[in-house]
Design brief:
Layout lengths: L3 E2 L8 H10 L4 E5 L12 H11 L2 E5 L17 H4 L10
Parallel strand pairs: 1-2, 2-3
Helix pairs in contact: 1-2
Amino acid sequence: MKFGMPSLIEFRTVEEHARFCAQHNLDFYELNLAFPWFQSDKIDPDELLRIKERYGIDYTVHFHDEINPFDFCLRCAPDAGTMCHMSLTLHGI
């Protein structure tokens, strides 16, 4: 079983979250794309990979709650495959 954490409002960078995960022996960090500072135009895939390797953590991605899953296309994110293995989980409320 793996344990991780969601994005925290107290931290404004991926690196702060990754450092916290490493300090508390967590396996992954859930990158919440609904936070303004984690919008796709503010995320650098190379930086995510560097942070992942530096702190030994993985990522999961939390999309905005109102996302249309059919709008998401891996062809639109060509660097995603080089960053990490991706798994997409959809759930309803």
